[in-house]
Amino acid sequence: xxxxxxxxxxxxxxxxxxxxxxxxxxxxxxxxxxxxxxxxxxxxxxxxxxxxxxxxxxxxxxxxxxxxxxxxxxxxxxxxxxxxxxxxxxxxxxxxxxxxxxxxxxxxxxxxxxxxxxxxxxxxxxxxxxxxxxxxxxxxxxxxxxxxxxxxxxxxxxxxxxxxxxxxxxxxxxxxxxxxxxxxxxxxxxxxxxxxxxxxxxxxxxxxxxxxxxxxxxxxxxxxxxxxxx
Length: 230
Known about the structure:
Distance between the termini: 62 Å
Low-confidence stretches: 1-16
Number of strands: 10
Strand order of the largest sheet: 3-4-10-9-5-6
Largest sheet: 6 strands, mixed
Mean pLDDT: 84
Radius of gyration: 20 Å
């Protein structure tokens, strides 16, 4: 009798301790359930490092394809307020980074000397959302690989509309023009990596690079969670 009662109580306690997966609403002891995690992992690019034709963006490291489960996870993180998803995905980015030979060759010869700068949100959007997903990604990424994170190195002074809402390259460039200013850079090295969630046309990244260049800070690489399929 007591054994059966303990079993039932144990099951009830397990149910109370488990949370809901923010992507499928199934019970899970983790941030997301195993099935959703596998679907997200299936979106990973086979080649993490992707040299860019633009001299302003020297090297792009994209973890996955902006589609399917990864696209849903990013949307849930940003618009349904689940920053824990960004923490998990930042770890996945870091693991891929640590395994990539190009990343090791470019940026890992001196452990602890690398600085990461996340793309900032405008204060109004930050207040509405409650967190900056790029900063959460960068913090999680840096904690895993041992880099220094400088979330206030760039300040977004222009409340731009989402790039996905722009119609063409000219409008995207105009939308981001003079959108950033230099913030707190004390202790920031002269060579950094930029971190963001999605890379589309590259307008946001190029504007951030130009702003940092004005203070003699060079961007050695850009690390993003996702970009559209090639």
